[in-house]
Amino acid sequence: MKRAGILMIIIGVITIIAGLLTFTDLTTVNAVDSHNWTINLNGIKSFQWPVFTGGALIVVGIIFHIADYEKHDKIKIG
Fold this sequence. Notes:
The protein has a domain at about 1-20 and about 50-75. Helix 1 packs antiparallel against helix 2. The chain is an all-alpha fold. It has 2 helices and no strands. It has helices spanning about 1-20, 50-75. The longest helix has 29 residues, at about 50-75. Keywords: Membrane, Transmembrane, Transmembrane helix.
């Protein structure tokens, strides 16, 4: 599990970098303004999905890494 956590963190960082390089020309609208047009101006590219996914992978990888660290300490002592 420790290797899986580290792998998730590395893949997450790569995904964030790739997402920041590919999702550059987004038309943004302030979501709190009360306009009558839709916020989804660019279709699927209206939200930086790769950056969000990379962040989620990093968080899950850190959780796996921390959870596995506790498990190995108890096994070595016992």
